[in-house]
Amino acid sequence: MRVSFRPGLAAFVAGLLIVANLAAQAAPAGAPSPTAATAAPAPTPGSPPEALPAEPPVAPPSGPTRTRVLTLNEMGVYGPLPLRGPDPNGAMSVDVRTDEVVTAARLKLDYAYSPALIFPLSHLRVLLNGELITTLPLDKDGAGKQVSRTIDLDPRLFVDYNRITVQMIAHYTTDQCEDPYHSSLWTDISPTTSLALTTASVALPDSLALLPAPFFDRHDNRLLNLAFVLPQSSQPQTLRAAGIVASWFGSLADYRHARFTAATALPADSHAVVLAMPGATPPGVTLPEIKGPTVAVIDNPAAPPQSGRKLLVVAGRDQKELETAAEALVLGRAGMAGNLATIKSVDLGPRRRPYDAPNWAPVDRPIQFRELVTDPQQLQVSGYSPPLIRVNLRVPPDLYAWAHQSVPLDVHYRYTAPSTYNDSILNVSINDQLVRSERLRPQRASSDRFRLNVPLLSSIEANSVDQVGVPVFRVAANNQFQFLFHMDSQKTGLCASSATDVARASVDPDSSIDFSGFAHYTALPNLSYFATSGYPFSRMADLSDTAVVMPDAPNPQDLATMLTLLGRIGEWTGLPALRVDVVPAAKVAAAGGRDLLVIGTGSAGDLLAKWGKSLPMLIGHGGTELSLRDQRNGGAWTGLLADSRDNPTTPLGRASIAPSGPLAALIGFESPLESGRSVVAVVATSSAQLGGVLDALQDDSRVSQVRGDLAVFRDRQIDSLRVGDLYLVGDLPWYARFWVFISHYPALLAIAGILAGLVVALTVFWALSRLAVRRTGN
Question: Is the pTM of this model over 0.90?
């Protein structure tokens, strides 16, 4: 793919000046340099936070201030934070956006500690980025119960990435042979711990070189909320351009998730993306003459002065140029500078191949762990009870293990070897399910290595049996390998030696997992695939096989649903939807060769009704019709491939209901326009209810409840059913189909074995008879 620009000499020079002065503009006047902040003398242990040495006053930023409260979970700690024996350190992570500066921070630390300590010698140290903030004494009065302390943190110590550390210094005896593993040495930081962070906005320059900031900031771990401002009565090409940009932001947001809104007016106090054409510019936005596909960053005139709110403008003289500008933005932002760039040309390059999404691990070859982590340091830990080493893995959900019952996992690891055999172990788990425990042996000549098979239950294989009794996992979901080292103490007596924090362990980046040999074959519809990986649309990472069917006159809720779903698919694939098509319901026949994502309100809802009552569910303004079917009549072959949890028990029939409350649903079925193509429809009694579906898909605790071919959303309740017909997609060799089919019928398998034995016996008998005739001549 190739993108060309003609930003102009003036814009280029301006861009260089902006980048050169960015730090000076972003920092408040009079703020001390990072060097000065680091070199400031630390307070003496036990002194309160306000005892910090006086510093020159910091001029507050001109923008408004905001205070948000971060929970312990939002600071990267899941559950309580334990402080134990030889590794008494706990850390919390806090990031600060590029367009914000911290003006105040207050840590509310809730904790409990052992009542068996020697209290004059025991205390907690609180540090921010390695600088001591305060010490908290562990006294007798608070022992064994919940204690709460409020600590003011110096805002001058905050940088982009911050680490708040709580260190326990504890003793239970004055004996010099004190055991650091003693059970009385404990402190637990409660999940109710929180950080109140007050920040002020910093006005960034209007620079394309900063993209995707400030619209998306990688320092911000919260849900990405971004408004899209579209012309009234937007045409499909305009919606496609907006969808491309939304999918790009979704791919950047990744685990944070992204939520988009659509409007025709500028938001009052937030960043926004504006799609503009001559005569179709939001009120208050002033642009220079549009001379072609254009991308620009300007101030948001609807936001308060000095708030730093920006507009990302994607403009063109017509619909085609608007699409070109959107494609250039997601492909060529690295070549943009200044506050405006005019696009000369865009080449999208060759079409993507199936299953080559960057966020999916390749399944045609072994994949090494170095490809699954951003930094090899993530595979290393230290201490006697180190944290988990986590390796995330996404694979296509339609993998079918017809000839395999397990996935080969080849693990290499290194560790500080014990001097003798003890209880040092490595636990290997997948999705919190233990696969194997390996004892760590004393030092050998070569590094340790073992090979194991991870039992696999394919999501289309309901009757697979775990032969080794190891918990199974779903390859279709987002998977996580977990490696937990435990380094046992080598003390042989109470006073024999003192444990030192020298233990190190790592999983080698050359470790690998191999999905090659698995087939892409599955039974659809299966909404769990869509909810967890965007399948079948994400099969092509650029969505070249996907069309979004919109109502002929979409409202803002319809548009927000389309943008959010495309952003969600971008999150799953890691790529923008450069080849997605957007069609109105009236022209759906033009998209017959594609998989269809239908926003089923208005005329799109009428389209679903036109396709007939064979659909699992129809939601209209006058009522709802729901199919009730016995899927066991659907045929032996599809029954073998269905998820066992989706087997319904309802009889064949159909119910017509007139609900008085709100209702929304996800419906999956085979496309009436072309066999083998899929339709996923988002429907609701009113467009306002579509947000409930989006909320559920972005809630990691609820998304697993979406499965089958019908998921009904009522408030926070999700009911998933299998009421429609199944169909098969993918490619499975004929001999594999025969083997899978016959393996589920033991009688047929026995008969086939007998017949095969007879054929072999008769063949051998015939061959021996021929040999005897040749020898005797009779």
Answer: no
